[in-house]
Amino acid sequence: MTLFDGVYPFYPQQRKAAVFDISTIIVIVVFLTLACSFLLIIPGIRGRARLYWTLRVLLSLFVGMVIVLVQFTGDWETGWVQANTSYKSFSPVQVNVDVGLHIGLAGVNVTLRGNPVTQINETINYNEHFPWSFGADYEHSYSQGLQKGLPSPILYVAEKFSRQSPCAVHRQYRIAGHYASAMLWVAFCTWIISNILFSMPVLVYGGYMFLLTGAFVIFSLLSFSTVRNSPMCQIQIGTSTLHVAYGGSFWLVLAIGLLCFVVGITIVAMHHLNLDLLKTFFDLREDKAEEYQEMPGVFINPHFINKGLSPSQPSAINSI
Length: 320
Hints:
Number of strands: 7
C-alpha cells in the first residue's frame, strides 16, 4: 500500500503531540482578558492606591486562574523514558523513541516521539488521551486506539490504566481525580466570595475566606495523593522502566495553597495589629479630615450688611 503525502490512504492521520488543551487555552484567554481590562482602567486611579490595586487584582486573578486551569492540565504526574522498542504489534522492527506519561485529574495522556522523529519512513509523533472522568468511557477510548492501530508502546501504557489491568489503578486514579477536582471547584467558589468581601469594609472575613480557599486547595492535593497508597505497576518499555513523579500542576497547586495561607494569615494579623494600614492597602480608609469636617468660618463685609438692613433691625449675623 502506498503513501499519499506521507499519510496512509485508508487510515486516519496521526495525532501530533499537543502542548495545550483547548480548555486550557480558553481559561488563560478569559483571565488574561480580565487582567487587560483592569490595566486599561488603572491609569484612572491616583497615588499609591494605583500600586495597591494592581498588586491585589493581579494576585487574585493569578490565584483564580491557577485553580481553574489545573482542572484541565495533564501533568499532575509525569514520567519520561527513552528506549528501543517494537513499533507495531507482531513486527520485529525496533525504533528508538521517547515515551511520556502524563496523568491529570480527568485522564491520562501517552506521548510517543521518535529519536529522530522520522524513522522507518514514518513520522513518529503521537499524543493520545484516554479519559477516565465521570461520564467518559476509558475502555471505549482504548478500544478505539486498538481499532486505529496505534503504536504498541502507547497501547501498552494505556492498558496499564484500564479496568481489566492487573495493576488495578484505574479506580484509584478516577476517584482521586474526581474528589480533587471537586475540592478545587469549592476553592474557586470561596475565592469568589473572598474577593466580594474584600470590596466591603469586612476585610477580616475576606482573609478568613482566603484561608478557607487555601485549605480546600490543600485538600485537593491530599485527595490526589491517595493514589500513592496503592502500589504502581512497573511499566517496562524495552529494557527501560518508566517511572512517574509529581508534575508541574501538582507543585503549582501546592504553591497556590501556601500563598493563600500566607495572604489570609497576613490579612487577619493586620486586622488585629494595624487596621488603618490594612484599610489603606485596600483603599477603604476614610479621610479623617473629611470625617470630622466642620463648617468653615464665614467672613462678611459689615458695609454690605448695614447697607441691606434698616437701622431699626439689629444685625443677626455676627462677623468673624
